[in-house]
Amino acid sequence: MTFTQRLPDSVKNRFLLALAVVISAALSASFGVSVAATNGPYSACPSVEEEIVDLQMLTGGLRETKAIGRMTKIRLGNDINKMLRRLERLHNNNSKFTLDQLEEQYHLLLMKIATLIHDDDLVLHQQLCNAWARIWFDLKDPDSFRQMRLQKGA
Questions:
Q1: Cβ-Cβ contacts under 8 Å for 117 (sequence gap 6 or more)
Q2: What is the pTM of this model?
C-alpha cells in the first residue's frame, strides 16, 4: 500500500496538489521561469527546440543520455515496462489498480527520472518536463494507448 492510498481522498488531493506546487516551484527556480499559480504545475516548463511528444521518444532519449548509467537505464526500462503492463491491464478491465493509482505511479516514476537526469542532461530534463502531461494523456486514453502499443509493435 502506497503512502497516499492510506490517506482519505480529501487529504490525498491536497497532498498531491501541494506536491505539484512544490515541483512547479522547484522547476521554476531551476530554470528561472516565473510560474503563474493559475497555470498549474507544468507552467514552469521552459520551451525547448526539440520536443518529446510521446513515451517512445522519451525512452529513446533515456537510452541516449549520458546522465545515467547502464544499470539505472535498465531499471528505468523495467519500471516503464511495468507501468505499461499495468495500464494495459487497466484498459482491458483486468487491473487491480485504479486510474488514479496508476496516475500517481506515473508521476512518481517521472519525478524519479527527472531527478536522475536533472543535473547532467538539462535538455532531456526540459523535454521531459514539457511532455509530462501529454504522455500521461495518451497513456490514460484507451484508444491512444492501443495505438501507441500497435506502433511500437508490442
A1: 62, 65, 67, 68, 124, 125, 128
A2: 0.68
